Amino acid sequence: MDSASHIFLVHGDLLRIACDARMVPCGDRFRPDRTTWFPDAPPGWQPRSREVDGAPAVRLVANWPPEGYPAGAATPWLVAVVGDWETPHLLVERAEQFVRAAARELRSGTSAVRLARRERPLLAMPLLGTGRGGAAQHAGAVVAQLLPRLQRVATEERVDVALVLYEADKYAAAVRVRNESLGADPARWPVALAAHEVAAAHEVAARAQRQQLVLFLGAGVSIGAGLPSWDGLLTRLAEAEGVIAADDDIGRQRFERLNPLDRARLIEVELQRRGETVVAALRRVFDEHPYPSLAHTLLAMLPCNEVVTTNYDRLFERACAGRRRRILSLPWESSDEPHPWLLKLHGCLDHPEDLVFTRSDYLRYDERRSALKGIVQAMLMTRWMLFVGFSMNDDNFHRMVEDVRKARAHGGPESAGRGRFGTTLMLRRDAILDRLWGADLQQVSLADPARPGEDNPAARRLEVWLDYVAQEASPARIRLLDARFDPLLTAPERELRDALAKLRDEASAEVRRTAGWALVQQLLEQLGGGDG
Description:
Blueprint: E1 7-11, E2 21-26, H1 34-37, E3 49-51, E4 58-61, E5 75-80, H2 88-108, E6 122-125, H3 139-157, E7 160-165, H4 168-182, H5 195-209, E8 213-217, H6 230-240, H7 249-257, H8 260-273, H9 278-286, H10 294-300, E9 306-309, H11 315-321, E10 328-330, E11 341-344, H12 359-363, H13 365-382, E12 384-388, H14 395-409, H15 413-416, E13 422-426, H16 431-437, E14 441-445, H17 455-473, H18 491-506, H19 509-512, H20 515-526
Parallel strand pairs: 1-7, 2-5, 2-6, 6-7, 8-9, 8-12, 9-11, 10-11, 12-13, 13-14
Antiparallel strand pairs: 3-4, 4-5
Helix pairs in contact: 2-3, 3-4, 5-17, 6-8, 10-11, 10-17, 13-14
């Protein structure tokens, strides 16, 4: 259904996602808590609201962005949701007003589109009213009514919506409602996935659940955050730093025909001539887009403890922080406790001495980063890698893979026949890539069947694919003894809930002193009910 919208379910932080408009819940005086919803605003700044036609409970922040905020910050919308909510449908109406008002402003140009390369605008919102808004005890009823309404309204307004859920149990509830309203098979979703895409998603999710999956992130995953591709970054730097003039089409064509490493060297030479550094120039670009993309956020939801990237930015780390999950950046951080880690093959802007940018950096790679190369090669031989936004044309990676191939060839028939080591997500089917890498990688193309040559609709379908993988790999389940989600339980689940509640409430003091009760109590707490 080409015109349909998608409602993404995100377990993360509403403040840490790149989008075009973001809901800020507040009271009917439209004065949200500044430290909660605008933590980086300068001292003394307060949001000033502006009314919009036809939506009295929704207002646009007129004095946005405050001084010092990045240009890529999403436009906030104040939505009055604080009250004594006994009827969840009123909250759902507020959500509809937000979607319609934000979509109207984006279409009119009054509100800036932040993600210009996305096929349709992305709005982000919480499960409104179920935190401190007064409807916390009705979370199940709110999400049950909200998701079908959002699907209809978002499709009418031609926007996508990310429903961002900070708590795992609310995420689990939203997944259940989506499966009941749309069906558990994403081949039947409004933005439908093909049978081979669904099969690949099941395989990747299963490997993630078994702790066998490693993520490999390239520059493409940051495009959804507003950053350019690697080639686009070089061209943007060349124009910004005076290597080519913005109106010099011939100079741009000559520049873009050069090897990327030679383009990088030209930029470095110009910066050195002016006494500046590559890192400073990169920061000027990256600081404009500090919010993780939707893809970053969905990937951070996967139960993966090992991640590799060629990116300089810290967007994936921020996406993990939005889930209260610490991730170590290798090779610079360490810990006595086990933590997930992110291996940054080409360095990080926070560590300029290790940046891999020009040809000379690449040539020195083996002598400076042989240990990192060894880690990647070990994972290629023992794990399954999911490549997202990576073009597979990095010379250092090619050398790593070739060493692995040789090791397998000398490891006997069993090792040599191990076959593929990963899945690569592509925006279109690449026959040449299949011929080069078909024996090593499963290629999953997310091209839109109706527009197979266009990247923007394919990138959106890739996000839908990641949404489904995150759902399938998630350990989150509805807590049977949590009264907030009673409306979502099936009849057998209610029967089990009642039996567990009876066990909890009627167990004698002698029973509670037994060694086995500690295990029962732990289970009851996991299911949302303690001693009662």
